[in-house]
Amino acid sequence: MKIEELLSYAKSKGFFWPSAEIYGGASGLFDYGHLGALMKRRFENLWLSYFLDQNENYHLIDGSTLLPEKPLVASGHASRFNDVLVGCTKCHSYYRADVLISEKGISVSEGAGASEMGKILKDNKIKCQKCGGELGEPKAFNMMIEVGLGPEKLDKGYLRPETAQSTYLNFFQEYNALRKTLPFGLAIIGRAYRNEISPRQGLYRMRELIQAELQIFFDPNGWKLPQEGLSGRVLNVVTYKDKKEQKISAKELSASYGIPDFYAYHMALIDRFYIDVLGVPRERFRFFEKGGEEKAFYNKVHMDLEVKVESWGGFKEVGGLHYRGDYDLTSHSKGSGKDLSVPQDGSRITPNVLELSFGVDRNIWMLLDVFYTNEGERTILKIPKPLAPYHAAVFPLQKDEKLQAMSESIRKELAKNFKIVSDSAGSIGRRYARMDDIGTPYCVTIDFDSVENSSEGYNTVTIRDRDDKSQKRVTISELQNILMKAFTPKYDSTE
Ligand SMILES: [Zn+2]
């Protein structure tokens, strides 16, 4: 599927579209519609239950999206959260230099500065994409969005560039409010802001984005991992050393590739989330290790989580796993003057951080790309059932008073536990097709037999499955059980 096709599908059904679209839209800003908002909520809930249930000492918090200047100076964002900007001297279009360069098939490290990129642009005679004009000198451009606070707007603040900062800023309070033990984790699902030079590719590069992050604070010498069978799990990995995609077990990564045990363990955990919970085909998910100058200097190990997304032209980053050492708490200790070290085995340590970071919007786009399927005349959004916006649709077979009354009472009963839509317009076939197109896993039809049965003290209805199109007659209580079973995520927590 092409980007335009996915965008047009998403808009016509009610998943998402550009913000302020009636005014022509706004670059890098999107709104979620009624189906997108539901699907996003389902993704976030699955993510929360999967990762937070790993340890009872992992907790969800929430933080202000507007931050004062000081912590972002301490974190390095005020000085280093930069992209290299280059403008056309003729038409004044602006570009990210690294994007212009990599689109020419030339590799450029993430750490490359303005002068290095300027040289590459000149050497390869790269010109303005719009008008072919000469490009000016590239320069560093800070991506944070600055705001003036107070009546005269004299106090400088920023919209947070990442949710992670809110977890570091609340480490002290949470560590003291909780059981004062490591490891402990703080998760946030929330909005972050980046003044992207050239937002593009739908939900890929946005100016306002939603992140789901779990920061785990731990003692690198004393992290006892659960005794799970995850270390034998075989992963698709492009290592920095080998630079090609290979199948390597988590165990082997720590034995032969210098990846710490706890890091390899979390790779397997994330792999299980993508493959077993989100249902992404094995060959479409991989880890991509960044090394040398490609990774931020404070990251000891850095892997991107990548999914092959057709509309984005191949493997693209949807998240990351970062071993950040003690960089964050050390920086905020210095910046705030507050001692953020903790007692551990008779001495004091500054906890290290393992960051599990996911772009929620990117994952929603990825799921539509991966699961939108054409089967002859039919189009089906075959997303895993727990991610479907609507759990089930309820149809009266015909426009008949009795059928409609019973249909409405069943809808109300199911709606206590599930998100239900009803539809009585057009033929049953057309109604099935509409539900397939937006991924509704079950259609429940109420016919004259249903009404007759009900007079004998029990109700039966027909339930039809989106994926195998099978239909069967069930009682209302069986129906409840089928739905309950289908919407419980399937992964073995004792594996
Ligand atoms: Zn130009």
Biggest sheet character: 9 strands, mixed
Shape: globular
Q: State the helix count.
A: 16
CATH architecture of the largest domain: 2-Layer Sandwich
Task: From the 3D structure, determine the CATH topology of the largest domain.
Answer: BirA Bifunctional Protein, domain 2
- Radius of gyration of CA atoms, rounded to a whole number: 26 Å
Euclidean distance between termini CA atoms:
36 Å
**CATH class assignment of the largest domain:** Alpha Beta
Parts with pLDDT < 50 across at least 5 consecutive residues: none
In this entry the ligands are:
zinc ion
CATH superfamily of the largest domain: Bira Bifunctional Protein, Domain 2
Which secondary-structure class do the elements indicate? Answer: alpha+beta
Strand order of the largest sheet: 3-10-11-19-16-15-14-12-13
Tell me what you see in this structure.
With 495 residues, the chain is α+β, with helices and mostly antiparallel strands. It has 3 domains: 3-81 and 144-370, Bira Bifunctional Protein, Domain 2 (BirA Bifunctional Protein, domain 2), CATH 3.30.930.10; 82-142, Herpes Virus-1, CATH 3.30.40.230; 390-486, Rossmann fold (3-Layer(aba) Sandwich). Helix content is 32%, strand content 28%. The strands form 7 sheets. A 9-stranded mixed β-sheet has the order 3-10-11-19-16-15-14-12-13, with helices on both faces. β8 (145-149) and β9 (155-159) form a beta hairpin. α2 (34-52) crosses α12. The longest helix has 19 residues, at 34-52. It is globular and about 80 Å long. Zinc ion (ZN) binds at residues 88, 90-91, 93, 128, 130-131, 133.
